[in-house]
Amino acid sequence: MNPFFLKDYAGPEYFCDRDSESERIINAVENQRNLTVSSIRKMGKTGLIHHVFQKLGKTTKTDTVYFDIYYTDSLAAFINKFGTSLLREKESYSEKIKRMTGDFIKHVRPTISFDGLTGAPTFSFNIQNEQSGIRTLEEVFGFLEKRSQENPIVIAIDEFQQIAFYPEKNIEALLRTNIQKLNNVNFIFSGSDKQLLTSMFMSTKRPFYQSTELMHLEEIPANEYSIYIKNNFESAAISISDEAISDILELTKRHTFYTQFLCNKLYGSGIRKIDSGEVKRMYAEILNENELYYSEYRDLLTKQQWNLLIALAKEDGIGKVTSSVFLKKHYLTNMATIKRGIDSLLTKNMIFKKENKYFVYDVFFAKWLERL
């Protein structure tokens, strides 16, 4: 089995480091503190949450629930995701459906459907208006309160900042009010928009003000990642040089998904002796494989945005994007155009800001852009 997994959580034997982060989350759970975990996308926060849940399952009787609301756009969609996620707890599907529909959900009966491919059941609440949604959500939280009397529950809501874009204007206050009523349920809020999450939990004007502990996830330390990579290759009798590992970490910037992807490709290539040259050849192959996909971005952006994206990729992190030096170097137009371009690229999640510098989000795409 290729040990460099790209999807889901495969177990502790395939998980790299994050020991201190895991201990911090577990400590928060054990001491009834809610926690907010932020990181840029593809840094491994979802895997970390599942890793912590696996540890909790071994050492405690805590029930765990995870759901991702990145693609939700309303309170109704949130409730449907929430209800579906509750079906995945340890209780059987038939028992859970019986309890949800018979004991606790009184206002709106959910429709149960089954995924055509996986067979997994999903909830769909026929919510007619905002008031109906509010009552249904309250009943779902009432169900949680009842369940938490049996076992403690930890609920992780991924991409939590998405609720800020719902058309309903009182979602934060509504969720905060319901969460405060729960005595044996803890929450992990995670997301990829650090600035928005910080505003939600640190602004005195927002309902969730100072209601959680904040934790930001950075890159895995190079020495820990190096050991992990070397051990996984050598366990399959594949030799890999220290220089090759160093190149992997440099080329992928230790962004978890991209590091895993490059290692996955190398592991599956059939090469038994990996040196720096093999790493660079595989990296070039990845860029070439994605060239058609990357080229299509040009049609989705204005000419000015495309040129700005290329400039940011070639700088590999720059803060003064309106400076005359930056503009002249990359043949860009006036400052007002650049500011609008930065805002647009941030909104499109094509770039991110870290330590007052702007970077292209996709590590492979950035390297491809550098070659233009």
Principal-axes geometry comes out as globular
Number of helices: 17
Question: What is the string of SSEs from the N terminus onward?
Answer: HEHEHHEEHEHEHEHEHHEHHHHHHEEH
Poorly predicted parts = none
Q: Mean of residue pLDDT?
A: 92
For the termini, the CA-CA separation is 37 Å
Number of domains: 3
Main sheet summary: 5 strands, parallel
Rounded radius of gyration (Å): 23 Å
Share in helix: 40-55%
CATH architecture of the largest domain: 3-Layer(aba) Sandwich
Question: In a nutshell, what does this entry contain?
Answer:
By secondary structure, the chain is an alpha/beta fold.
Commentary on this structure:
The protein is an alpha/beta fold and 372 residues long. The chain has three domains: 18-216, Rossmann fold; 222-289, Orthogonal Bundle (Helicase, Ruva Protein, domain 3); 301-370, Arc Repressor Mutant, subunit A. 50% of the residues lie in helices and 13% in strands. The chain contains 17 helices and eleven strands. It has helices spanning 19-30, 45-59, 75-86, 93-104, 130-147, 171-180, 194-202, 222-234, 242-252, 256-267, 276-289, 291-295, 297-300, 303-315, 324-329, 335-347, 363-370, and strands spanning 35-38, 63-68, 111-114, 121-124, 153-158, 185-191, 213-216, 239-240, 273-274, 351-354, 357-360. The strands form four sheets. A five-stranded parallel sheet has the order 2-5-6-1-7, with helices on both faces. A two-stranded antiparallel ribbon has the order 3-4. A two-stranded parallel ribbon has the order 8-9. Helix 1 (19-30) crosses helix 2. The protein is globular. The protein starts with 18 loop residues before the first helix and ends with a helix. The model has no long low-confidence stretch (mean pLDDT 92).
